[in-house]
Amino acid sequence: MLVFLIHGVATQNAAYGDRFKKKVRELILEANTNRNTGAEETEDYIAMPIFYSSFWGHTFKSQTDQLFNWVRSDIKEITNRHPDLKGKGDDIYRYQELREDFIGKFFGDFLTYMHTEKGAEIRKQIFDQFQAFVKQHPRNQQVVIVAHSLGTLILWDLLFAQNLPPADPAYEFRQLFHDESYPLQLYGLVTMGSPLLFMKIKQDIDFSIVDDFYSRHPTSFLIWLNLIHASDPIAYPLSAAIKHDCDQPLFLFMDQYIWQFGNLPELSALRLGQLAAAMALGGMDAHNSYWGNDITAQWVALLLQGDVKTLCSQRIHTGWRSY
């Protein structure tokens, strides 16, 4: 099984998925040990998945850096002009580091991707990496794609979007699943912290397109897991929207909830009844937690094992962090 990862916004480290991959491997090894198969491949043996972490976060980093160089220059200029303001730049224009890390990198990546040409450039990078990955492993035809945050929109565009220009790299990406000489099978999708429900309105997303994809690959069985952290303001459930578009979906879809707090300050604010503060304090930590969350790895390991029964019976996992 090939497992291809797509990261989301504000990711500058290509090692973003390392802990996730390590944990999934450990869970698969544990499952094989429990089956008493040892090293011998029997019918119950689960082959160790092969991972690839795609990376596009560096693509427009220089432009973001330039933006905040201008900001710092402006603040320096205004404080130099008024001697009584010397050393007070951080108070005149507050939360500079947070603006750069959250607003600049988070929304900057999102707005950059929504630009037609720059979005296509990102899709081209991911297509090139995916193509090289599958060609390196010609005996592995089943593919699982795991995407986070903006990466879930990139995933949707690569596989299903209908409003892209004819020359977009997404069509080359899809062709890899149509190539009769090397028929890849899309076995699973995992979306984490996904804004696809919100984007459904903006981009007129129709989830019945997934049925169309499946109908052209009748020998495959597609499982789609949508992971939602309880405190993640970016994540939305998709079950009702998919049922609206697909009367009886040909693929197996399920929302899975991670019932945890984002961090200790969020919990403290909730105990004080400060809901808005709690959301602000815990939201981004929750949104950024999926790759390092053991529950994420557990669900993906179950998907790779084909344990549909457990996936269907457990939709809410606490792994409760009481702090």
Polypeptide structure, described:
With 323 residues, the chain is of the alpha/beta class. Helix 1 crosses helix 13. It contains 14 helices and 7 strands. Helices cover 50% and strands 12% of the residues. It has a single domain (2-58, 120-317), classed as 3-Layer(aba) Sandwich (Rossmann fold). Helix 1 (18-34) links the parallel strand 1 (2-6) and strand 2 (50-53). The protein has a 7-stranded parallel beta sheet with strand order 2-1-3-4-5-6-7, with helices on both faces.
Salient structural properties:
323 residues, 12% strand, alpha/beta, 14 helices, globular, Rossmann fold, seven-stranded parallel sheet
Topology (elements, then pairings):
Layout: E1 2-6, H1 18-34, E2 50-53, H2 61-81, H3 89-92, H4 96-114, H5 116-136, E3 142-148, H6 150-159, H7 169-175, E4 185-192, H8 196-203, H9 208-215, E5 223-229, H10 239-245, E6 252-258, H11 264-271, H12 275-287, H13 294-305, H14 308-313, E7 316-317
Parallel strand pairs: 1-2, 1-3, 3-4, 4-5, 5-6, 6-7
Helix pairs in contact: 1-13, 5-7, 11-12
